[in-house]
Amino acid sequence: MSDLLTNSAQHGGQLGEGYGRTKPQGADFSHGIALYLEKVSVWFDSFRALNDLSLYIAEGELRCIIGPNGAGKTTLMDVITGKTRPTTGTAFFGQNYDLAKMSTEQIAEAGIGRKFQKPTVFENFTVMENLLLAAPRDKRVKKSFFSRLAPEAQLALDESLQQIRLQEFIHKPAGLLSHGQKQWLEIGMLLMQRPKLILLDEPVAGMTDAETERTAELCLELKKNHTLVVVEHDMSFIDTISEKVTVLAQGAILAEGTLAEVQANEDVIEKYLGR
Ligand SMILES: Nc1ncnc2c1ncn2[C@@H]1O[C@H](COP(=O)(O)OP(=O)(O)OP(=O)(O)O)[C@@H](O)[C@H]1O
Ligand SMILES: [Mg+2]
Question: Which mutation among 47, 66, 115, 233 tests ligand 1's pocket best, with the greatest number of atoms within 8 A of CB?
Fold first, then answer.
């Protein structure tokens, strides 16, 4: 397998001959943009959840998205991950992946990882088992879960564990972890896929202050190697991690800028923050 990977790296991401399929070449970020959403609208019957929304996320950026309940923040993540299709408009990952034409699995394989609002770890499995379950399957072998780990999976496991700092709990059933630890485990599970773009939907909801602080540290660490889009209502958390903040309301962008800038924006005060 390591030969195969070396071979694949040397040939522009194509898998070597004889394996019956070719791998996509990987997202093309040559223009410095990881995600392009252009004039995206999503209609649910007669309700418009996203309204002509255009959003560009630069490679390596950590973008925070805030806004009132029902603003369309989760719907935006659903569009990016293929769970919901844009009714009109386009969504591209890099120059080359037309997200509206890809399945959720293809989008995950292309390098977009997402954490949902509620943690979805397998409570009866240990931390390690949860991480292994999240490792990409080698489609050529059936016996993957209990068989020996491929070297790159071991590496991904070590890196994930180190980032989420759950090494001492690897044999603990996930059901016995605290809420915050479960959220970190889920982030670790998505890191097993080696995503380029990570979407986090309300990662600190329900966390203690200490867990929230630790999650802010984790986001800043992840930023070193990933592009991140983080949706949150917790303003002190946003204040700790944010660079550019986008405020969404009624499916459209209300304001963009630093947190201080958007907090001083009259529209934002009126429609979101209150006086
Ligand atoms: N599948 C669906 N069918 C119909 N309406 C939907 C669907 N999904 C979302 N909506 C509606 O679209 C609007 C936007 O919802 P969304 O979940 O994106 O908001 P949000 O910004 O994530 O809110 P919150 O901060 O509460 O999580 C809401 O009014 C919601 O009821
Ligand atoms: Mg939401």
Answer: 47
pLDDT in tens, 211-265: 999 999 999 999 999 999 999 999 999 999 999 999 999 999 999 999 999 999 9
Domain 26-273, CATH: 3.40.50.300
At residue 166, the pLDDT reads 95
What's the burial of 116, exposed, middle or buried (CB within 10 Å: 0-12/13-18/19+)?
Answer: middle
> Hey, which of 69, 75, 78 would you mutate to test ligand 1's pocket, going by the most ligand atoms within 8 Å of its Cβ?
75
> In angstroms, rounded to a whole number, what is the distance separating the alpha carbons of residues 78 and 72?
10
Q: Domain extents for the chain?
A: 26-273
Q: 195 Cβ partners below 8 Å, 6+ apart? A: 108, 111, 112, 113, 226
Between CA 3 and CA 17 the distance in angstroms is 12
